Amino acid sequence: MIKKLTFILSLALMLVAWTNSLAQVNELWKKDLTGNLLWQQVNSYGNYIVCTNSELASFNPETGEKIWSSQQFANISNTQLQEMAGSPLLSINQGEAVTLIDPFSGDIKFNSSQAGISELKTTEVLYLANGILVAGKNLEGKPLMLMIDMASGKTAWQIEEKFGRIVTVNEFSDQELLIVTLFNIYKINSKTGDIIWKSATSKAAEKLQDMGAFGSLLQGVAEQVVADEDIKVNFYMQPMKGVFVIAGESKDESQTSSGQTTIRYENNYTAFNISDGSMLWENPITMNGQLGDFTFYKNELIILPNNGNRTKINSFDVKTAEGKWGKKGRGTAIKGGIYQHVKTEKGILLISQAGEKNYLNFLDPAQGLITFEKPVRIRGEVIRTVQSPKGILYITTKEINILNSSTGELFFDKSIQTLPGLFVQKENEIYAFDTKENLVKLIDINAGTVKNVSSVALKFEGKESPNTLELKEKGIFISSEQNVAMIDYSGTLLYQKYYEAPREPGLKRALLYAQAARAAYIGVNSYYAAGVLQSAAPDIKEEDAVSGAIVEGFGQVYEELGNAASDFAKQSFQQANARFKATAQGRDFIIILGKIDKDNALFKVNKDTGETEGNINLGKEKDPKYAVDDITGQVFKKTGETQITSYKL
């Protein structure tokens, strides 16, 4: 009788689970469109955009209410609409015309044709000035720079000087901005467009200007030569000292007698006074190799280039450009080219690369000495470092270990092999999935110990490998695209599930895009919340106030800037902050694309149980028109030629 009752209960539970998997998720709202649906998407700020053959429109994701629409942009392809880099603005490319739209209101903030620009080269959103800086050529082919007022969309000012190719734009304040071009630097009043000062980027550029019309001709020829090249220029500012540094990379190609092409790189550094643009030195600092890393140190600047196995690093006096390290101030040799540094109480950890090989070295900046007898070779590129009483715990794209910064020895005999997304830091502990042993391991950062949490190797079906690890109350959740599993904190496997994937790879496109956006937010959350860059915050602030503030507390910066900014900027920061907070809180389910009989479906899978809690049937279409906001857990599905339905998972 007991066995029979147990069987009945088990059958009932299986029936409930099966019923849940077939249960459609309740719809949030349904909307009839004014035309046939062409495509839909959710951008990184959470704006839901729909394009039909009659309009481009934005809808409130929660209610389905239409916020704005534009018949002008009906029928555009999804490749014509892009998010403008560094801004929520939408950029619509229609051949010769480029239009920038406020995604919150639908207002047109800029149109290149109406502004008289035939060839658009630069667009930069300036949050402090509440404007958009655009530059290019007018209808006559002459240079034109405009400041567009963000509130009205009207031109606040314009400059018709032959400024040339713009390589970087930086805001000093809401009143002043710095524009660096190939041959000149401009400090401009961002309210009026008045040029406060103009300075040549180098002595060579200064000589060209002294040559009058012929010099201008040579400048034009030089710009044409590099018109299609990706010019590498970095900008560093030390506001406490009233100094900024422009670093540029140059490349020289030559052929040997045997016909082989050799490439030689140089990087040049020039320092300027912020107040008047004057150069601090008679000649720039020149280092061999490509641009690598850089930092200010007391009254010096440390240059860490990338010249492969021939790299030399050096520190220079800011006022005189005199070299401080090595024989006759010519620098200190190091293995590999520098691509990252980490300041610690004892010195500076240098991370370098030569070919596919990565190395760790330790620098005493006061003496310019490399303290390790030989560099420490590591696997993968460093993506995170954490201070530990035992040294510096580093995480690369392939492994985890702890470096003794005094001796250069690694603390663990064998590094833990892992991947980005497969480790989580919780206070002074790191949980990581070892991809070689297929085990979850626990690292005590303070004690420098590592132990196995799981005892049985976890192997996923469908030839998939884990790509995500998350800490839940009941245990450690591990997943891939089609597999989910949970291991409790004592190491017991609580469940392991596999969901068959549809055969058509195009079905996954919208879901993978949404998951990538969520992963980006989570990555920033975990990176900064862990306090990884706290010690570097002062340096970062000197180079970029916003980034420095993010390091100290990424949520607070959005709130503070939002309160002080324009309506557009305020909405942008508030929207981003809300989405950061949503990903920081985590959630109890994951979205998986699978199958129900012969239909494709999006499943809501409970992370604690691995069971489905509902689905959204996508039918048999090979390319169904659906969009996902993986941060809010909302799905938008085409349910008719002129109809969309929203579901809340």
Structure in words:
The structure is a single chain. Among the domains are: 247-378, Lipocalin (Beta Barrel), CATH 2.40.128; 380-471, Thrombin, subunit H, CATH 2.40.10. The chain is flat and about 75 Å long. Helix 2 crosses helix 3, helix 5 (537-543) packs across helix 6 (545-564) and helix 6 packs across helix 7 (567-585). The strands form twelve sheets. Strands 26, 27, 28, 29 and 30 form a five-stranded antiparallel beta sheet that branches. It has seven helices and 48 strands. The chain is of the alpha+beta class and 649 residues long. The protein starts with a helix and ends with a strand. Helices cover 17% and strands 44% of the residues.
* Through-space gap between termini: 40 Å
Shape: flat
Show unreliable segments.
1-20, 212-227, 527-565
CATH topology title of the domain at 247-378:
Lipocalin
The CATH architecture of the domain at 247-378 is Beta Barrel
Structural class category? alpha+beta
CATH top level class name of the domain at 247-378: Mainly Beta
What's the count of strands?
A: 48
**Tally of helical segments:** 7
- Rg result: 28 Å
Helix content: 10-25%
Question: Average pLDDT, to the nearest integer?
Answer: 82
User: Largest sheet, if any?
Assistant: 5 strands, antiparallel
The share of residues in extended strands comes to: 35-45%
